[in-house]
Structures are given as structure tokens and as C-alpha cells.
Protein: Isoprenyl transferase
Organism: Paeniglutamicibacter cryotolerans
Amino acid sequence: MELPGFAYLLYERRVARSLSPEKLPTHIGVLVDGNRRWARLAGAPTSEGHQAGADKILEFLGWCQELGINMVTLYMLSTDNMNRSSQELDDLMGIIANTLDRLGEARTVRVHPVGAPELLPDYLSDKLLELAKSTAGATGIHVNMAVGYGGRREIVDAVKELLRDGEANGLTPGEIAETLDVDKLATYLYTRGMPDPDLVIRTSGEQRLSGFLTWQSAYSEFYFCEALWPDFRKVDFLRALRDFADRKRRFGS
């Protein structure tokens, strides 16, 4: 239901007041889905949809900072997306690069790349790594940029690295297998050392994870929103947080 501007603002404030800080998620994962559909419905080039989605990311991070949510993982570009038409992919990578520059200008955002940099053009992978280095000391929100990311690939990469480390330490495959457990493998993921997401949000009405944080989301709560990502409003976000706060997390039990 669409509300007039003033009524919408009052409703947004009412939802915000209903949220208890202690019940907010620490880490949120977001599948920023619906940019292409938004452009198609607007009769605009696909690149305009991706740019509108990038602008929404910066707005969304502002909301998170207002609420004290300190970690966000954004699904920007999957390994499957790498199969899109060359022009669209080039446009999207350029928009991602520009978004990284804008995040760097904020000086309060700590950026961490999540994905396989070898799949990306050098200019983009270099920019991700340079930004991660330059923002390492930032004390604001921690943003994981999932670019060239695939959940299955992440697990395969983790196993490969674990095996290489074991071999370098003189262990046999059997000895490596004997020491392997869930906690150890987690130390080889792209998100090593970080808490798993408490809440995963997907926009555009799709109700699947599409390989996003396959390992880390085992006990996450999921929230699916009908709004396309560029149309995602603060009140939609607040509703997701309210829904999360009302749930009783069971962690598999």
C-alpha cells in the first residue's frame, strides 16, 4: 500500500521506534536484485538500472550506519553474472568501480573484497585490493563486496587452500582429513574471521539464495521483499528488521 509523503514518514518513524537496538542483526547479507527489471519497466537502458542500484547501495549503507549495524555483505556480481553480454558486463563493472571510489571517499567505510579476483579485469581487482588496504583502519561500517563471487566456488577455494597449507606443512592427505572439521574449514573462507550473517535480505520477489554465502547462511534468517532493489525504501528495510526481531532463532535446533 502506497502512503502519501507525510503519512509515509510518520509510518516509517513508528516502525523505527518499535525496533530495539539489542534485537538488531550484527551482520546483514543483501542480494541487490532487480536492477535489470527496474530498467526494463522504466524503458531505460540496463546500465541505468545498475546505476540506480549502485546509488541505492550508498543510501542503504547510510541507513545501516544510522541504526548501528556494523557489517554488511553485498552480492554485487556473481560468477554466473560473468556470462552476461559483454557490453552489459563491462557497464556493470564500470559502475562497481565507480561505487568503490564513492565508498573510498566516505572515509568511514571499511571495504573487504569477497570473491575470486582472478575472474575480474585487472583494473577492478586492483581497485578492490587497493581500497581494502586503504580503508583497513576505518572505524565505520564494514562492507564486504561480493564481486565475482560464487558460494560453491568459495568452498572449493577454501578446500584447495587448506590442502596446500597441509602439504606445505608436510602432512599427508589422510592427516589433513583427520584434522578437518567445520571450524577449521571456516578459517579458509573468503569471510574468515567474520561473524556469519544474522539476516539475509533479497529484493525483487525472488525466493532463493543463488549461491550467496552458501556456507555462512546455514543458520541465517531470510527476508524476501517484493520491491526491486532501486525501489527498496528505508521503510522496507525497517520492516525486514522488525520481522527479524520478532523471530526466535533456533540455529538448527
